[in-house]
Specification:
The complex is a heterodimer of chains A (about 260) and B (about 300). Chain A has about 260 residues and is α/β, with parallel strands linked by helices. Chain A is built from eight helices and ten strands. The two termini of chain A are about 30 Å apart. Chain B has twelve helices and four strands. Chain B has a two-stranded antiparallel ribbon with strand order 1-4. Chain B has a domain at about 5-220. Chain B has helices spanning about 5-30, 35-50, 55-80, 85-105, 120-125, 140-160, 165-175, 175-180, 185-210, 220-235, 240-265, 275-310, and strands at about 110, 130, 135-140, 215. The chains are: A alpha/beta (about 260), B mainly alpha (about 300).
Chain lengths: ~260, ~300
């Protein structure tokens, strides 16, 4: 479904601030795989996500999605293939527009824009049905401006908007990190439910090891611009956060894992 | 009501088109566009030039819309593709248009005496004044203008609810989000700027025909007048929905003209009007903030008082 081949990216090449963000990364994602990605700050997680979404272009290497070479396609040109939820609950929705208008934009992903009404009764019916899945009562608030919703509700809506058109790839960029534990748990459950329903090929970045182990069916650990651990489902199921740390140390030849932001529980 | 007030309402309606244009960039796209001063005079210049050359006034006004739209698109390309700061891109187009407008007109002022214009057409309809008990409430001309601008308002309301219109609004509201859904925000920005300046040019074309001449300096300060109308309208009449805010912007334009008319009647000089305009905008921008601050302080005080007693 997604193939990243020999991708390299260097920021500020040739200056004192030179930073190698990705070194020769290769990744082959099969359809329906749900990959969780962990790694310390600066490991290259965000760079990799931005490469896939088209926010950044690689210096060398290729990226193909569903057999299509998208390496040089801009963000909006490959958006029809990719659904994305950001860390910031404010980032995925337009606050001054209503819930139904936001959903109408999501429904139009990758399609030609026309001068037909963005929202009509037919679409409204579809939106209500989809919103019911969220269990937030949003199906009765179609005409509410999104800015009035709570962070958790906005993130749930973002998740729905990113997924209900069944993109080829779903990118989740620490999408629970900015929420309180209770709401984060709600979004986690929703994510599992929605991904399973549409059998979405998903890549999720997280700082929560427990989450990385409990969710998905493959785990990647990034470090210093490369993939240092690639753990398949069977092995992942038996692991605990401590096992992950030990695996990291083994992979790095004794270097201990130091990252304040990591949540072990 | 007296003649000055009647004139203020008529003007307010014509400048309401300008206000709707400014609203599209300033509020919908969230781009401060200074092209307006140039494209307003451009609209007047195009309409006057073509009407004098014998073009049908309807066609001449339509041409003003198209050419004004091109000017807006130019600012848009400069801003999105050339990565020029939006304010600067607008200023550059505006200053270039000053020379272009002089070229179009051939001289600084083009009178439209004895020419058939949209305004003479409206007057020839001889719609009777709307009177109640012998007092004129609205002139026949304003009635026609009201119908016209309401139709325009409804067209804009409709456009902002189409798929393309939703994209435009989201471009101003959350560009990162709308890009992730496959919309090229460069394109939507250019479309929005073109549409806005097209409307501004139509406003200029109408004003030229209404006042009976086009002048190269007629656009000076139009951006501030447009902003004043938008801000005053929103403060006085609300902005909870698109339908409401477009109406508010038109009403804001009328209120602005009424304030100007009153200031003139109070004995101020026409040359003082730019100062009055600036004051109106300052008051409209600051009073709601200050009022909110006072209100919040009172709320805090009352809560504290309540705790003290308990």
């Amino acid at each position: 479904m997604l193939k990243i081949s020999n991708v390299n990216k260097v920021f500020n090449a040739g200056t004192v601030n030179e930073k190698i963000a990705l070194r020769n990364v290769n990744l082959h994602v099969k359809p329906g795989e749900f990959i969780t990605v962990i790694g310390s700050n600066g490991a290259g997680k965000s760079t990799m996500m931005n490469m896939i979404s088209g926010g950044l272009f690689p210096d060398s290497g290729t990226i193909t999605i569903d057999g299509k070479d998208v390496t040089r396609l801009g963000e909006h040109q490959r958006a029809e293939l990719i659904g994305r939820v950001f860390q910031d609950p404010m980032a995925g929705t337009a606050p001054n527009m209503t819930i139904e208008e936001n959903l109408a934009i999501a429904l139009g992903r990758g399609r030609r824009r026309t001068l037909g009404f963005g929202v009509n009764n037919h679409k409204r019916e579809l939106f209500r049905e989809q919103l019911k899945q969220l269990d937030q009562g949003l199906e009765n608030r179609l005409k509410t401006k999104v800015g009035f919703l709570s962070g958790g509700q906005r993130q749930a809506l973002s998740l729905l908007m990113a997924t209900f058109t069944e993109p080829k790839i779903l990118l989740l960029d620490e999408h629970t990190a900015a929420l309180d534990p209770k709401r984060a748990q709600l979004i986690v459950e929703l994510t599992d439910k929605i991904v399973a329903r549409h059998k979405l090929t998903t890549i999720m970045v997280t700082h929560n090891m427990e989450q990385a182990l409990n969710m998905g069916n493959r785990l990647l650990m990034l470090h210093d611009g490369g993939i240092i651990l690639d753990i398949p489902e069977e092995k992942k199921r038996t692991m605990k956060p401590q096992d992950l740390l030990r695996a990291f140390e083994a992979a790095r030849g004794g270097e201990s894992f130091s990252e304040d932001r990591f949540l072990l529980t | 009501m007296n003649l000055a007030i009647m004139g203020a309402i008529e003007q307010g309606l014509l400048f309401g088109i300008l206000a709707l244009g400014v609203f599209l960039t300033f509020r919908i796209l969230n781009v401060p566009d200074l092209t307006v001063d140039g494209s307003f005079a451009l609209g007047g210049a195009i309409a006057a030039k073509f009407i004098i050359d014998g073009t049908n006034p309807y066609l001449a006004t339509l041409l003003a819309f198209v050419v004004g739209g091109l000017a807006g698109a130019f600012t848009g390309v400069l801003h999105t593709k050339g990565k020029v700061n939006a304010l600067l891109a607008g200023i550059l187009t505006m200053i270039a248009l000053y020379s272009i407008n002089l070229r179009i007109m051939g001289k600084a002022n083009l009178p439209l005496l004895r020419e058939d214009t949209l305004f003479t057409y409206v007057k020839d309809l001889s719609i009777p004044n709307l009177t109640v008990g012998g007092v004129i409430l609205l002139t026949g001309v304003s009635v026609v203008f009201i119908v016209g601008i309401l139709l325009l308002k409804l067209a804009i309301d409709w456009f902002l609810h189409t798929d393309l219109g939703l994209d435009l609004r989201a471009t101003g509201d959350n560009p990162k989000m709308i890009r992730s859904f496959g919309v090229n925000t460069d394109t939507t920005t250019i479309i929005g700027l073109a549409l806005s300046n097209g409307l501004v040019a139509v406003s200029g074309a109408w004003v030229a025909q209404y006042q009976g001449f086009a002048d190269v300096g007629m656009g000076i300060g139009m951006i501030v007048i447009g902003l004043a109308s938008v801000i005053v309208g929103e403060v006085l009449f609300g902005s909870s929905s698109i339908f409401r805010v477009t109406l508010a912007v038109i009403l804001g334009s009328i209120v602005y003209r009424l304030v100007i008319a009153l200031a003139l009647q109070a004995g101020l000089n026409p040359s003082d009007m730019k100062l009055i305009t600036a004051l109106i905008v300052i008051v409209a921008l600051t009073v709601p903030t200050v009022a909110k601050g006072i209100w919040n302080k009172q709320a805090v005080r009352s809560v504290r008082g309540g705790n003290g007693h308990a």
